[in-house]
Design a protein that fits this description.
alpha+beta
Length: about 80
């Protein structure tokens, strides 16, 4: 499997969470996978919506059991 990119936005607040995710996606190649670590709550509701709105795939959301979640996404050709 190709390298999986990792982005930690667990210490960030909105709108920086969305900005950092969009910048990271723009630097990815088609079909690359990225895991995004985020706090549970607002980011977990907003980030998947942004990713899908931009035309990419949310593969899974993992509850880390410590107040954070990891979202796994794939960049699609847009």
């Amino acid at each position: 499997m190709d390298n999986i990119k990792f982005l930690d936005i667990s210490e960030e607040s909105c709108p920086y969470t969305i900005v950092k995710v969009k910048v990271a996606i723009s630097e990815m190649k088609k079909s690359e996978i990225m895991e995004i670590l985020m706090e549970d709550g607002v980011p977990c509701r907003n980030i998947p919506k942004v990713i899908e709105y931009e035309g990419h795939s949310v593969l899974e959301m993992i509850d880390n059991g410590n107040g954070t979640k990891t979202l796994r996404m794939r960049k699609e050709e847009v």
